[in-house]
Amino acid sequence: MMNGLAHLAKRLPIPGDLADIGGYLRPAGRSLGIVIDTPRLDTQRPFQDQWDDIVEALEAAIRLQGWWNNNSLVLAKWQILERT
Question: Which of 1, 29, 30, 32 is the most buried (most CB within 10 A)?
Answer without folding.
Answer: 32
